[in-house]
């Protein structure tokens, strides 16, 4: 930027057309590399009229999986599942899947090796998330419940509670998460937890920022994390009381129609002889909306959108089941 000194003896005339062309070119060059938005992934969570029991039984989630599949799938190649909001560019590192995927560690040989279908619900007390995981080598966690051991079959839930991280958009949906991560870092309102839903003690476990145990979520008596081993892998059910967000939000986080929270999911998968290994080529990590930079930068997260719509009535496949459910869906759009 420059200014003209009216007292100067030097005079020239500025052509307004030239200014318009120069400014337009500058804006065009900026807009093709840096504009606005999180990764572009969106999930809508609708309200359940009754609490969801956290026990690893997904019968009451049958409708959400039936109506939202395949858009809520977490898979090595999201393009085959209708997720086109962005693709991770070719990553660095050793034995990882090719670029254009959401694999950030290790190697996944296909959906039979590892994939997950998931859904989210909410009520006035809790945010609920459920996962139906396909895993060809399930490892039940039986180690330290107070301090996380890195190599686990587990899930990370990551949040930008105020949805205020710097945001970026790239042409052709080639989202360079490493570059974005260099522009933003976790602040007071950004947080994540790691969970192991299938454990030798029965109840699941939870760690703060994937490190020390969360004193509230990790307590088996509180019933916030549970899972079951299945014929094709395992399940995970997690409920987060809205109160656990208060230290990060700076006050009560009261959900209402239209609330948007930065959000992403990362699964860690271990394979091989127990306790298993997370390193390539046996294990690895993949995410729903971004990649593993999501634990470093809230700018790469997707969006969790709270809907005030209430779906009532029984929806489970077994009439003896516990509760009604509602469905959530991803809007697989790039905005």
Keywords summarizing the entry:
335 residues; mainly beta; Immunoglobulin-like; 4 helices; 16 strands; disordered N terminus
Q: What does this protein structure show overall?
A:
This protein is mainly beta. It has a single domain (16-330), classed as Immunoglobulin-like (Sandwich). The protein is 10% helix and 27% strand. The chain has helices at residues 16-31, 62-68, 177-181, 246-249; strands at 42-47, 73-74, 87-88, 103-106, 114-122, 126-135, 154-160, 174-175, 190-196, 205-208, 225-226, 233-241, 260-269, 284-287, 302-310, 329-330. The strands form two sheets. Strands 1, 2, 4, 5, 6, 7, 9, 10, 11, 12, 13, 14, 15 and 16 form a 14-stranded mixed sheet that branches. It has a two-stranded parallel sheet with strand order 3-8. The longest helix is centred in the first third of the chain and has 16 residues, at 16-31. The chain is globular and about 45 Å long. Residues 1-12, 17-37 and 313-335 have low confidence and may be disordered.
């Amino acid at each position: 930027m420059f200014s003209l000194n009216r007292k100067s003896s030097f005079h020239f005339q500025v052509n307004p057309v030239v200014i318009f062309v120069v400014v337009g070119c500058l804006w065009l060059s900026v807009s093709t590399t840096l504009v606005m938005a999180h990764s572009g992934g969106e999930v809508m969570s609708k309200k359940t009229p009754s609490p969801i029991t956290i026990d690893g039984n997904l019968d009451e989630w049958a409708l959400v999986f039936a109506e939202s599949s395949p858009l809520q799938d977490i898979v090595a190649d999201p393009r085959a599942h209708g997720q086109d909001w962005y693709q991770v560019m070719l990553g660095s590192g050793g034995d990882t899947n090719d670029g254009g995927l959401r694999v950030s560690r290790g190697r996944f040989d296909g959906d039979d090796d590892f994939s997950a279908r998931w859904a989210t619900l909410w009520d006035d007390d809790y945010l609920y998330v459920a996962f139906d995981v396909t895993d060809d080598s399930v490892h039940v966690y039986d180690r330290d419940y107070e301090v996380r051991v890195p190599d686990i079959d587990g899930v990370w839930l990551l949040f930008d509670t105020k949805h205020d991280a710097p945001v970026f958009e790239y042409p052709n949906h080639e989202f360079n998460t490493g570059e974005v991560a260099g522009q933003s870092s976790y602040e007071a309102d950004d947080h994540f937890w790691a969970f192991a839903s299938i454990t030798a003690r029965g109840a699941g476990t939870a760690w703060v920022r994937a490190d020390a145990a969360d004193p509230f979520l990790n307590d088996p008596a509180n019933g916030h994390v549970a899972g079951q081993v299945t014929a094709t892998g395992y399940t995970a059910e997690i409920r987060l009381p809205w109160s656990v967000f208060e230290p990060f939000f700076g006050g009560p986080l009261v959900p209402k129609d239209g609330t948007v929270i930065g959000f992403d999911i990362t699964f860690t998968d271990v394979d091989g002889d127990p306790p298993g290994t997370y390193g390539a080529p046996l294990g690895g990590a993949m995410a729903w909306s971004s990649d593993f930079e999501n634990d470093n930068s809230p700018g790469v997260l997707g969006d969790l959108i709270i809907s005030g719509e209430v779906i009532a009535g029984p929806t489970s496949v077994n009439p003896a089941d516990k509760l009604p459910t509602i469905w959530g869906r991803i809007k697989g759009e790039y905005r």
